[in-house]
User: Fold these one by one.
Assistant:
Number 1:
Amino acid sequence: MRQPAHCDACRRPLSPGDQIPIVAWLRLDGKARCCGARLRLRLLAVEVLGFALGATGMLGLLLLI
Ligand SMILES: [Zn+2]
């Protein structure tokens, strides 16, 4: 499903700490650590959406138990 995480600009694989785009984005002010390219906001939005869906799913599970 998910592609291995890599930089869109230079195609280098991301380090484990940078696998979560929103974390890297917040920490590095929207720039990739490897090459300084601006991270795409579209990817960030996808990540945020996935996180929100995951959190909602977890909450739903907790409520079911
Ligand atoms: Zn890069």
Note: The chain has one domain: 16-64.
Number 2:
Amino acid sequence: MMGKRAPRRGRMIPALIACFYAGGVAGWLLHGTFSNSGGPRPALPATVELQEPHETPAATAGKIAARPEATGDVPGAAFIGRDPIAELRRHRLLLPVEGADVKGMEGGFGERRGGGGRGHEAVDILAPRHTPVHAVEGGRIAKLFFSKAGGTTIYQFDPTERFCYYYAHLDRYADGLREGQTVSAGDVIGYVGTTGNAPPNTPHLHFAVFALTDARRWWEGRPLDPYLVYER
Ligand SMILES: [Zn+2]
């Protein structure tokens, strides 16, 4: 059994949501290094550049061409329902990182990346390296995957296996974690790191939520804004 510890909201971890490539912004450094000592943490600039490529199951697996709009008839709409955000809000998801700042997630989803293509389609939560990452709810581990951009990642289904949660840039998985395993809400599934293209001095969790198609493939889904899911 992996350590179960429900994230609390009490402690605010500075969260950054704005990872985008502006290009040409060089030398961005966090002022100091995060530590787990509980001491004061450095203030973060309002906007930081993580030089992190867009990362989604689609990008990872390269298998989705279509990107349905948020409204109208979309693949999987009947399967998921017309308001997946409202549905997921009823799941009352835990935060993937203890004390993560929900308000700080606002806007991260839509940040534009290099080339002006798709948005970020995820939120980034800054936290000290090795901070535990928790399953936001119960469900099956769909895939443990290493990608150049996302590094060490986890794809986890929700209990209905109609949604998928994506945790990226992990330092490592929790001991014993394996594909197909069912985890409980709050279980530690990994640890914050900088694998993939995260800047080495900016450990953070890249967290995404996807509404799957009726094929229920972990790599094929419509990204949902995590902020809207958590906003209370
Ligand atoms: Zn990110």
Note: The domain at 77-230 is CATH 2.70.70.10 (Glucose Permease (Domain IIA)).
Number 3:
Amino acid sequence: MYTIFTDPLHRIAYATDASAYREVPQGVAFPENEQDIIYLVETARERKTHLIPRAGGTSIAGQVVGNGIVVDISKHFKEILEINKEERWARVQPGVVLDELNLALEPYGLFFSPETSTSNRCCIGGMFGNNSCGSHSLVYGSTRHHVLEAQGVLCDGSIEVFKTYTIRELEERFGNRFWETESNLLIQNIYTQLIRWALDEKTVQLIEENYPDKNLRRRSCGYAIDEVIEDLHNTAKPLEERTINLCKVLAGSEGTLTFITEIKVDLDPLPPKEKMVVCAHCDTLQKSFLGNLVALKFNPVAVELMDRNILELSKENAEQSKNRFFVEGDPAAILIIELRGETRTEIDALADRLEKALMENEEHLVYACSRVYGSEISKVWSLRKAGLGLLTSMKGDAKPIGVIEDTAVAPEKLPDYMADFAQMLENLNLSCVYHAHISTGELHLRPIINIKEAEGLRKFREVAYQTALLVKKYKGSLSGEHGDGRLRGEFIQLMYGDEVYALMQDLKKCWDPLQVFNLHKIVDTLPMDSMLRFEIGQKYAIEKELGGGKTYYNWKAAFDECKVEGATGAKNQLHALMCSIEQCNGAGDCRKSNLIGGTLCPAFKVSGDETKATRARANVLREILTRGWESEAFAQALDKDKSILKSKELAEVLDSCLACKGCRSECPSNVDMTRLRSEILQQKYDVSGMPLRSFAVSRMATVEQFGHLVWPLYNLFASWQFSSNIIKRIINFSTERDIPTLSRVTMRTAVKRECRKHKCQTTKGKVYLFADEFTNFQEAELGLTFAKLLLRLGYEVEIPKHVESGRAAISKGNLKLAKKFAIKNVNLLKDKVSEQTPLVGIEPSCILSFRDEYPDLVPAEQRNEAKTLAKNALLFDEFIMREMAAGRITTDNFKPDAVEIWLHGHCHQKALVGTEKTVAALKLLQGAQVHVIPSGCCGMAGSFGYEKEHYQTSLAIGEMVLFPTIRKTLAHADDVTPCIVSAPGTSCRQQILDGTGVHAVHPIEILYRWVK
Ligand SMILES: Cc1cc2nc3c(=O)[nH]c(=O)nc-3n(C[C@H](O)[C@H](O)[C@H](O)COP(=O)(O)OP(=O)(O)OC[C@H]3O[C@@H](n4cnc5c(N)ncnc54)[C@H](O)[C@@H]3O)c2cc1C
Ligand code: SF4
Ligand code: SF4
């Protein structure tokens, strides 16, 4: 049985999608079956409200934003019901994610071919709702072309199957020439209306004259009346044999006509394996429009565009900066041209001819071409797909805004249309970002506008209006794939004329006379510049809470240093903090499931709960810190006299975050929730005090330092069940976990002793070891092993004077303390550590605080010193790789042996450095087979997994990929080859032990075991 959640957390989390709009809904429901949807339809009618069907919530035009009840089907309508290999179709529930469907279809050699850049989280229901398509629409068309059947609930609560029916079949159901008489039956009226239009010459002519070019592949503007009646007015056929399939008009109807509960789609065979991407570099945009027309003559399966702005932004994104390898020079635009064929020779020959045509012409359309093959192709597409997300990572209030981002005209008209468009932009004094599906004449055009200012808002409307006029002039479509929603609905009348618009209004009235489904979308929309996320002259509720806008991190520095053209920077620290939250554009990459991979976002992955996704966190932070208690979501709140920082909703979203930094690298908009979380936690503690547990965890190293003086006693107390349970209960840790015990001597002492013995045997330079607080007290043996390894390899080793890294304090939001550690460490190490004498760490999260947090934690005057130190603070594997590159460490230093290593990377390492270097370091052992476990976060995340209320979630996260992979691996291991599970993170190793009983080792221990 469903519940309608009306609490502020749900209402805020569902007040936006990936558009510029925000409207707080009355409630949110998660129906479990069709019957629940029927109840919801009845409830909506009774309460005189409307239902907003929602899937992944990645719509860009505000389709799933409204004041009714948001009905999220992504949680329970996730089943693939049937796959028919022979007939090549699949029957699915609407909440099935596109990439997950295609993973399930792969063994059958089939796939669902319309794709979107959001394929890893958008659902088939949402694709149907928006008539989505993607880079390969040139070949595969849009969702409308692939939906065979659908089932849905109409506004009167009846269930209907929509598929191809002949007029004869409909007459059998409703009676002979049923469209000539009136009826009380809703579904009959729906067919009647369309048949009447199709049989009326004047209406047909009206539609033909006013709809976009028939040969335009991308048309998602307004209701597709032309498509649904196409066969009905096919006079070549006898009337009773003509057909109608309502799916044609339901595709792109944006949840305004019916609630879909099942969809049957046709499937395509997997494309041939042999493919190649030619990346054609143009020095002007205009040349890329012309280059596209040349490329189209060579039968490409896709031609996509990326302009200089996107390429620049990709430099600043941790994930995408790795995918720019194909860029040569400083192109104004790159055309990505995908070619397919049966053999490599065949496509190479085609590419030769294509490149010749592009480069050897009078206009010199292209100055360089790079070819990409095999698995590298996915990196090119990953960069291209991240484009839209990257755009919102532009720092400051001015953003490449989604307003005219979806226009499509016939490709041959594109050069002229673009020339007119550029002139219009010049008149409005605007610059623009260009990218995406150029092959089909669709470009995502994003003018850079600050809609927080009146002038910007005026331009927002003006550019929409003038573009609509231009698209009409070129007989294009205002929306090619993103749909109308509340953004473009206002201009449909202008695009199609009054009479066609009236038909569309009549269509909505006929389907939904009771006004149950997604009101004010497509037709009768509100003004496109109303209900926006940002208000003119936006004030921040949090301003009152922060004494003089004081923040603990230096948020502004990144804005000051951002070199991207058009970036407006930040006025002060508070503004920079708020802009960092507002970076979230709602695109929903943080909704990827564990089947898709990556780390982002474990809290969502394990629960499937939107309120636990990074997006919800950003939405709640934005709403609470901006509007505060004034938000409509808090209309019923009783305790508005207290600080907004004490609100329950804020606590809830911060609490479910593991601070794993998954978002730091994988969110295309660079939303760094780990950092936001610790800043807001400290701000919160400033008004309400720090909980005992957070204090204790952030002071753990101090406790251990004193405990070390009486270590046998400490260990007895920590490991004896009775006493350790007392401590766990006091600080609210799970009694299922063991408190870490202390090493007999610290790493510092052990290493010092060892180094004394080896003083004269070092030749390769000096290494400063960072004795992080975990290794130093709890795993001194590991620290000693690293020192021994380095000594054996010929290095001089020293542990310099330093204090703890402050990692625990950062993760618990004790930033006052973390700042002290950062300042001290920079002061203590700045004159010692250099490129020649780097600081090398064992525990990734600790050494990486030098790189990721310190420069923004220390005072401005220390920033440069901190940045220099950061450059020379290396993870153990980075150091080894550096030395390998210099020829100072080689495979000759290690004994060859057959060994199988299964590596689980630490989240912070994955976010900031990647695991490639650990793999390369382990491959120093000739004969080692290294497998990276495709796990995200292990679930422990520092103290998160120890905390009583998080214990089960923590294990459940481990159970998603990590634990089963380890169990399976060890179960299949043979007796001959040693099989080792390795993890550089101390809490990861503990989690693996607790979850599987397997002792994972640090990669350093493996290298030491095989060093000569
Ligand atoms: C970064 C980014 C890139 C994008 N790239 C592309 C692209 O390449 N191609 C493209 O086509 N789009 C693209 N989009 C837009 C969007 O991702 C797609 O339209 C996607 O298919 C929407 O799917 P969703 O599951 O998020 O649906 P939602 O946004 O949740 O819903 C989409 C529409 O479907 C309706 N709906 C959902 N479920 C039902 C149901 N059960 N019954 C009735 N109606 C329903 C909703 O009411 C809504 O109107 C992009 C968006 C972003 C943010
Ligand atoms: S947090 Fe990042 S990934 Fe998630 S919706 Fe926001 S911008 Fe997208
Ligand atoms: S830090 Fe991790 S848990 Fe927190 S929002 Fe980012 S990805 Fe999610």
Note: The first strand starts at residue 4 and ends at 5.
Number 4:
Amino acid sequence: MLKIGLLGAGRIGRVHAEAISAHPKTELTAISDAVNDAAVGLAAEYGARVQSSDEIIGDSTIDAVLIATPTDTHSDLIEAATQAGKAVLCEKPVDLDLERAKICQKAAGATGQPVMLGFNRRFDPNFQALKAAYDAGEVGKAELLSITSFDPAPPPVSYVKVSGGLFRDMMIHDFDMANYLTGQIPVTISAVGTSVVDPEIGQAGDVDTAVVTMAYADGSLAVIKNSRRAAYGYDQRVELLGSRGLLQAHNVLENSVVKSTADGVTGAKPTYFFLERYMAAYRAEWDAFTRAIQSGSNVPVTLEDGVAALAMAEAATRSAKSGRPVAMEEVF
Ligand SMILES: NC(=O)c1ccc[n+]([C@@H]2O[C@H](COP(=O)([O-])OP(=O)(O)OC[C@H]3O[C@@H](n4cnc5c(N)ncnc54)[C@H](O)[C@@H]3O)[C@@H](O)[C@H]2O)c1
């Protein structure tokens, strides 16, 4: 049984607490949070003990830590945990700052400890099936990848202010999905963003709606569309046009009933948000981490993957500000 310390008992920390405790080979042993009451409440639900993050990292009885704290703490905690001999699963993104993330990658790499990044969408069964079909050559060579990712409602502006902006906080998942599906990193990135959903997000210096286009060395293209608001729920779709056909992963709906009457044809909405849509993916992500740690094999999503996606977010942020395409070699 692996003993796990969870750092951060907020929105995503609660999701991971469930996955860790539901897994037959891991025990949620200790929880920390900067707000002690948050850790106490979650620890009571799972029978874990409450410790500070430093205490968990220094605790020789803990085998691995899951970092679910705000983004600006990730690099410091990854470095401290790996230097203390812990395996790490850390939430995305690696850091707000690309240069800091690269330093973290080097420092953690030098310890030899496994570090996995929390790109949970790689573990969604629909996207995995799409990738398997593409890798098997079923639609030929990729020519145009389209990723749609709309949240149902924007986060509080207080979160936006510390998030690093839409490209680093939200679209980072889609950058990683593009890398995962195509197996390559783009050559150039062009981005345009606006704040039509909530003017306060614009006043905070961020955008809530954005489109990115990416060009690859092999001549193929990708487009990513993000919005912080979709009135009908969490819209998560992928479409891959290849030389011999099209692969599409549609939304997961609340139910599969379609009503057809004289008034028209209607069906259920997409599931509400990430908790509903991706709970199976978070469990599969945790299982993949656990298997890698126990078998000594490589983790399936690396710090290198995290740095690559962050570099793409950096390029998109610069492109949206300057209004010109940004070459990946300018940032990476
Ligand atoms: N993969 C996903 O689907 C997904 C979804 C949401 C958030 N996230 C990522 O997870 C991270 C946390 O996001 P959230 O929405 O859960 O935020 P949150 O604010 O709800 O929770 C973060 C918690 O960490 C605590 N904290 C702060 N510093 C700490 C420290 N040094 N040690 C221990 N606890 C500390 C805070 O008090 C808070 O309770 C962010 O990096 C975000 O990008 C990922």
Note: Residues 7-13, 32-35, 38, 53, 68-71, 73, 91-92, 118, 120, 169, 274 surround nicotinamide-adenine-dinucleotide (CB under 6 Å).
